[in-house]
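Following up on my earlier message about phosphoenolpyruvate. Here are the inputs again, as you asked, copied directly from the submission form:
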Amino acid sequence: MRKPFMTGNWKMNKTVGEGAELVKALADMVWGVEDVTIAVCPPFTALQPIGQALRNTNIALGAQGMFWKTEGAYTGEVSPGMLKDVGCTYVILGHSERRGRFGVPDKDVTEELITVFGDNDATVNKKALFALDQGLKPIVCCGELLSERQAGNTDAVVVSQIKAALQGITAEQMADVTLAYEPVWAIGTGEVCEADEADRVCGVVRSTVVELYGDCVAQATIIQYGGSVKPDNIAGLIAKENIDGGLVGGASLKAADFAALVKAASSRA
Ligand code: PEP
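Thanks, got it. Here's what our run produced:
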């Protein structure tokens, strides 16, 4: 039986003070929930103080990205060691927003501009390998654009992203890897993927893990769904066989909403 995993991705939200207020309220609300793994991923600027605030709670700390070197002339980047130093256990890798793939068009953040900073299959793989090597647990994201879905390429995109991200990762290391299926068109748009379809694609992700590592590893791998997960749609999603939790953006910014998601995951556990 896989333990559900709910991760809050705060993205570029919350000052230190706002984040501290949020986790204080959240910690009270989810205290005692032991059958769900809970993590929040604040922006880099808030990691250290939020890590402190999470001490003696059942909420783990994660980061929203990292670089694949221990140190050096990599302006603007952070290493896994730095993230561990401030208390991180997890790191989100390959989020569509880091790949320059957006569900909501933004004229100030075009694909052309963002790819300069963005991830691709090769960097996600390098980061995943290095995170594991350095003792951080990666949450590796995959997902299709609306145009790819409309062209009937959803499964091919997801399979190819997962295979690329996991290259060189061993079966033993897979115990520390979480996979997240996040259809790009459903991220931050309010448009949730229907539970049956989300489950089907998470099943495609699991089948890919079967192909790469065998059934035993695949049955133990945590696969999250992400994309406009909210208190009013979580029940349908979390009830599905292949959905083991959520990678949650907007609804993780309010303590009561994220606590409701954690409790829904707990009731399935
Ligand atoms: C995300 O941050 O990965 C995400 C899915 O965002 P939202 O829940 O806001 O769609």
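One observation from looking it over: The chain has one domain: 5-268. Hope that helps, and feel free to reply on this thread.
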